[in-house]
Specification:
about 0% strand; mainly alpha; DNA-binding; homodimer; about 230 residues
DNA sequence: GCCTCAAGAGGCGCAACCGTCTCTTACCCT
DNA sequence: AGGGTAAGAGACGGTTGCGCCTCTTGAGGC
């Protein structure tokens, strides 16, 4: 009955079983969505029974949260090679490729539930967004040291636009994100913003801002140094 | 039992009832998600029974698709006032405000299902993305005629970045999108890209593109004139 | 004011899933 | 080798929603 074996004779335990369950949760999320995920479906896909699930987790929500915290695939940190465009292109392509795996479907399903599950949103930020944002910024710092990009953008949200737009295209058009879309995002949006183009001064005519709380954020977000996670300030 | 009346004595018919059902569907989508939406929940929230639902639609999927096609709230088309930044700021704020209503929650729920429901994705594009993209472009054409922005960006995806980023922030942080985020998106990303900053030429060193299919798309997307819907080419 | 139609309410059988449980049996430790 | 532990499988009662149904009653046309 197991989905991924033809007639396994061995009986898995411990970490091997755990990884199979995590993998099954991601696939179930991708296939059936958050609301459609069932414990029986996870058990069947993992080739196990419900008892091992309920022995480890008390509920579906706990299982999913734990999967986010410990069962998501990891990706290697980007490194600076001397050409920041090549590095970013590689990073965006890797990201787009990852979204074609169950990881992408799971992300889609999880994002639709974040307003009902703040703990899940926090976990996504802790596990996915902020670590990858930190790695990306470390790489861009090297690029900045070589004069390839403006240093002041590194601590701004501008850095995150590339992955954000790839993710957005994934969400609204589904995988795979075409390679030419990735290249366009990089060359038409990301590189111009990172390289030379400063921020636009609001038109000289009239009041510069009609906002209440513009402060420094509207002009130079995150200049305070922290508060610049991958997708949101922390 | 009805959610929105205290003890209605009247009995609604025709369009009044239809609108109540559409509204209930949107609220249910926002509250319970796509998988969590039930016909009984819709009926209860609309203050009606299941029979009027099944009299009009054969299934849950049909009801939801029809709601997308006929029950979504409309927004006034943006007009050019002489200052494109003010107009875009107003547009983005209006969009962000709309996302705090059940419309936003419904969009979140629907987007998580688009890979399973291509018809739904197509409906979203036909009803939401493309019409609004057309209106936005019409407004920007006026701005271009006044020399406020570069004319060549109007038929590119750059135009859509503003709404896209607001939507992305909504999806990953939940409503409401802070006003300073909107202002930052506008002044740090959208206006610089629309105004003066050309696209980046890939570094002179080495091969310009290591892509297979760069063609014209990587350098000047959508210069062919069509294929530039709000969120995707058509 | 009568008559028709459909709204509002909810019962019904069916199916799926939950969370618990029992039972057998493979794995691991000593 | 033997014994404890947990994996794999699935039965169970309970709950929930589906889709269909009936029934009563208010609304609107004539």
């Amino acid at each position: 009955m197991a989905a991924d074996d033809g007639g396994r004779r061995t009986r898995r335990r411990g970490d091997e079983l755990l990884q199979a369950i995590y993998s099954a949760v991601l696939s179930e999320l991708a296939d059936t969505g958050y609301g459609g995920l069932t414990m029986e479906g996870v058990a069947a896909r993992a080739g196990t029974g419900k008892a091992p699930l309920y022995r480890r987790w008390n509920s579906k929500d706990e299982l999913i949260l734990d999967t986010v915290q410990h069962g998501l695939p990891t990706s290697p940190a980007p490194t600076y090679s001397g050409n920041v465009r090549d590095d970013l292109l590689h990073l965006l392509r890797r990201f787009a490729a990852a979204l074609t795996t169950p990881f992408g479907g799971a992300m889609r399903a999880l994002l639709s539930e974040t307003h009902r599950r703040p703990d899940l949103l926090a976990a996504l930020h802790d596990i996915v967004f902020q670590p990858r944002g930190r790695e990306l910024r470390a790489m861009l710092r090297d690029a900045s040291d070589h004069g390839e990009i403006r240093p002041e953008v590194i601590d701004s949200h501008l850095v995150d636009i590339g992955p954000e737009m790839v993710m957005f295209r994934f969400l609204t058009e589904g995988p795979p994100v075409p390679d030419q879309t990735i290249v366009s995002i990089l060359d038409d949006v990301v590189m111009p913003l990172l390289r030379r183009c400063g921020k636009a001064e609001p038109e000289g005519s009239g009041g510069r801002f009609d906002d209440r709380q513009q402060g420094s954020a509207a002009r130079d977000p995150c200049q305070d140094g922290d508060g610049c996670g991958f997708l949101r300030g922390e």
